TrEMBL record:
One GO cellular component term noted in the UniProt record for this chain: cytoplasm
The organism of origin for this protein: Tritonibacter litoralis
Keyword Oxidoreductase: yes
Phylogenetic placement of the source organism: Bacteria, Pseudomonadati, Pseudomonadota, Alphaproteobacteria, Rhodobacterales
Pfam families in alphabetical order: DAO
GO molecular function, one term: oxidoreductase activity
Name of the protein described by the UniProt record: FAD-dependent oxidoreductase
Keyword set includes Oxidoreductase: yes
All copies of domain FAD dependent oxidoreductase, residue ranges: 27-378
């Protein structure tokens, strides 16, 4: 099994870039080449602004290019919990905006002809237990109260959709779908370039400072001076000297992709092409790609110390969920990091004049990342913060992040070990 990302091997979009070489002066500098940064660059350049995007590695190198590829609506939190935490007005606005996020993503894909295996056949949130089904029933009632057209499926309907008899029911969301996430991210960058944005890769930022009425962003190979700045590194912020350093809990998620299923197997497994994840505390996910590979994911770092535990778990999990695929070989494995916040709500921190950091999608990166990136560009260009899906704050801090990250990784490893005995 190759310890490399399937998405890197199967991508159909490319974005030709070079490192920064020299100094620039622009309207907007974006740091980070994931969904947030690329959608911001696309929006700003499309509005006529001069834009420079700086990425330390390659476009989509971080969580965006390691994503499961589920284009979901909303957050992990059910709508009522979002509103309880944020208040009626702000909470309902966020629920509505992120309910429309899949439409925004698929509209961009169509508008810019992004080749990313876009499939909009919905997603299934699977009940791993009777208690999980009760939770889905609450989400069903809340979601439909706020305008979603969700369907609550029983065990028989869920087995028919998934090909697995392991689940007690499911919540079907027709707004959602799946994509090849790295191709989508590269396609956003290509579209941003076509709109006039300058994109520089292999260009890590060392230092961000305020100089007069502008922001100065220093790299080893040049300096970018800008009226406005967007920090969009999410879980991959590292080594930048700046006035504000985003704090979050880094949580690893690993994935394993099988060899392509046969035609007969594809008729039995996810025949409708939905993407799936379950209600377990240490959750898992599965979906198909365009070539018919089954991609199984779970909490944990498959490149870390507990790598053997997570790899053995994946083998067992595949056999438990789809017994007929028990012998199917895995061809790819990879891990990525999620930026979790304590309340699971994304953050927009305005840490200086015309400077924002956007992060903390807590595992829902595609729809929210695209929406927040677009909105941040609009807010910085117009000066109107009403474009943003959440209220702006001057600061945000998460405490004990290393301890909490270790707790998640240890918990995932323990859960995957325990599953060997059940």
């Amino acid at each position: 099994m190759s310890q490399s990302s399937l998405w890197h091997a199967s991508r159909s979009e490319t974005c030709e870039t070079q490192p920064l070489a020299g100094d620039l002066r622009v309207d907007l500098v974006v740091i980070g080449g994931g969904f947030t940064g690329c959608s911001a660059a696309l929006e700003a350049a499309g509005k006529g602004a001069s834009v420079a995007l700086l990425e330390a590695q390659t476009i989509g190198f971080g969580g965006s290019g390691r994503n499961v590829g589920l284009v979901n609506a909303g957050l992990w939190l059910p709508p009522d919990q979002v509103i309880d935490q944020m208040g009626q007005g702000a909470g309902e606005r966020l629920v509505r905006v992120l309910g429309d996020a899949p439409q925004h993503v698929f509209d961009l894909i169509k508008q810019h002809q992004i080749s990313c295996e876009a499939t909009r056949n919905g997603t299934l949130h699977l009940a791993h237990s009777p208690a999980g089904l009760q939770g889905l029933d609450a989400r069903f009632r809340q979601g439909n109260r706020y305008g979603a057209s969700l369907q609550l499926l029983d065990a028989a309907e869920t087995e028919q959709r998934t090909g697995s008899a392991r689940y007690h029911g499911a919540l079907f969301d027709p707004r959602a779908g799946t994509i090849q996430p790295l191709s989508y991210c590269q396609g956003l960058a290509r579209a941003a370039q076509a709109a006039g944005a300058q994109i520089f890769t292999q260009t890590p930022v060392n230092w961000i400072s305020r100089l007069g009425n502008a922001w100065e962003v220093r790299t080893e190979t040049g300096v970018v001076t800008a009226k406005s700045l967007l920090l969009a590194t999410n879980a991959y912020f590292q080594g930048i000297r700046t006035l504000f350093q985003p704090t979050f809990v880094p949580v690893s998620y690993c994935q394993f992709a099988t060899a392509p299923l046969s035609a007969a197997e594809r008729e039995q497994v996810l025949a409708g092409g939905e993407g799936c994840w379950d209600t377990a505390l240490v959750m898992s996910s599965f979906r198909l790609d365009q070539a018919g590979r089954l991609i199984l994911g779970g909490m944990g770092n498959s490149d870390g110390l507990a790598s053997p535990v997570h790899r053995q778990w994946a083998r067992r999990k595949l056999a438990q969920v789809f017994p007929d695929l028990a012998a199917k070989p895995f061809e790819h494995s990879w891990s990525g990091r999620i930026a979790m916040t304590g309340d699971h709500v994304p953050k927009v921190v305005e840490f200086g004049p015309q400077a924002m950091a956007v992060y903390g999608y807590s595992g829902r990166g595609i729809g929210p990342g695209t929406v927040f990136g677009t909105a941040a560009a609009q807010a910085l260009l117009t000066g109107k913060r009403t474009h943003l899906p959440v209220p702006v704050t001057p600061a945000h801090r998460e405490n004990l992040t290393a301890v909490r990250a270790a707790f998640f990784e240890t918990g995932a490893a323990a859960a995957h070990l325990v599953s060997a005995r059940t």
